[in-house]
Amino acid sequence: MTRFPVEAYTPGFGDPVPRHRRNPRRAYDPAGREITPATIANSMENGVVALRVECPCGHEAEIPIERFPPESFVPDAGLRLRCERCGAKAPKIEPVWPRVSERR
Ligand SMILES: [Zn+2]
């Protein structure tokens, strides 16, 4: 289970978006309105230390979160990345939370 920041559950904004026009990197509320994603800065405040990058070829890496622009959206962070092994673009990314034992 992935733990999402609290703001992932806030209601969306604007008009409902039809299913076929939705952005796969955005969440939508039950009414179909787009929910503003967490930014890199939000995630750092919430304790995320890195983004785990997974490619369909099986290559995985963790990139320290401070290497991303603070104002950019977390779901878009993978867009600028390319797999080191197979060269595929925009691998899947996931926030990395520290282990409970490592928290201060
Ligand atoms: Zn790959």
Account of the protein in words:
- By secondary structure, the protein is mostly beta strands.
- It folds into 2 domains: 9-36, no CATH class; 39-104, no CATH class.
- It has 1 helix and 5 strands; from the N terminus they run E-E-H-E-E-E.
- The protein has one helix spanning 40-45, and strands at 27-28, 34-35, 50-54, 60-64, 92-96.
- Strands 4-3-5 form a 3-stranded antiparallel β-sheet, with no helix packed on it. It has a two-stranded antiparallel ribbon with strand order 1-2.
- A hairpin with a 5-residue loop joins strand 1 (27-28) and strand 2 (34-35).
- It is globular and about 40 Å long.
- The mean pLDDT is 86.
- Bound molecules: zinc ion (ZN).
- Zinc ion (ZN) binds at residues 55, 57, 59, 83, 85-86, 88.
Fill in the keyword field for this structure.
single chain, 104 residues, mainly beta, 2 domains, 3-stranded antiparallel β-sheet, two-stranded antiparallel sheet, 1 helix, globular, binds zinc ion
List the helices and strands and how they pair.
Layout: E1 27-28, E2 34-35, H1 40-45, E3 50-54, E4 60-64, E5 92-96
The structure holds zinc ion.
Zinc ion binds next to loops.
